[in-house]
């Protein structure tokens, strides 16, 4: 059994200004996406040049923040949001949803693809391998914040988080860091290392994330105000991940069922 190390969630304080580790994790994610994207832009099959990668990361960052905040209120805090609609504008307050952020990024990709005249799947295949590092950094931020804890457990690496009492718990944030960040990055980056049928990389990312999130939810506490939503064990995170798995699998199937001459469209 381990004890949570009580990490200060504030990295730097400069007078009234406090910079939180969680916010810095977003910066790490965006910088990683920018650096990896510029590196990928050097490939001969890249749909973007280095300058266009800068814009892609900027618009995607807006999608992550706005979509993540809107998704949190729609999926996890709808009653509170309807009672206080202006909560959506208070971006500095806690509460972000990955699935909402994903929708925000999808909207940004659609608009940017139209602006560039690039096929949407080619653009999303380019962007998908850039995402997992940011996901992993975000889960590390959750761990530092002492939030999204796992269910009680007696495994040797279970952690006691004092604010929740003496019961050891799964460090589910670190499970998500390992699966959604490290493992998903390794698989998607490897898969995208050579040209694939249009939509295949995007499909693998969606199915891979959905499967990883669905699995980890078995070890993570459901949101206290929602609890289990179906069958006595299904959580909101699992319900939102099922469409990702289905869409990802369908994209992979479709990508390789198409005639070879049309797969790069």
UniProtKB/TrEMBL annotation:
The keyword RNA-binding does not apply. Pathway: Protein modification; lipoprotein biosynthesis (diacylglyceryl transfer). Keywords: Cell membrane, Membrane, Transferase, Transmembrane, Transmembrane helix. It is a multi-pass membrane protein. One of its GO terms (molecular function) is transferase activity. Its EC number is 2.5.1.145. Coiled coil: none annotated. It is an enzyme of class 2 (transferase). The chain crosses the membrane at residues 19-36, 56-76, 96-113, 197-216, 228-256. The keyword Transport does not apply. It is found in: Cell membrane. InterPro entries: Lgt. A 1,2-diacyl-sn-glycero-3-phospho-(1'-sn-glycerol) binds at residue 139. Catalyzes the transfer of the diacylglyceryl group from phosphatidylglycerol to the sulfhydryl group of the N-terminal cysteine of a prolipoprotein, the first step in the formation of mature lipoproteins. PANTHER family: PHOSPHATIDYLGLYCEROL--PROLIPOPROTEIN DIACYLGLYCERYL TRANSFERASE (PTHR30589:SF0), PROLIPOPROTEIN DIACYLGLYCERYL TRANSFERASE (PTHR30589). This is Phosphatidylglycerol--prolipoprotein diacylglyceryl transferase. It comes from Halorhodospira neutriphila.
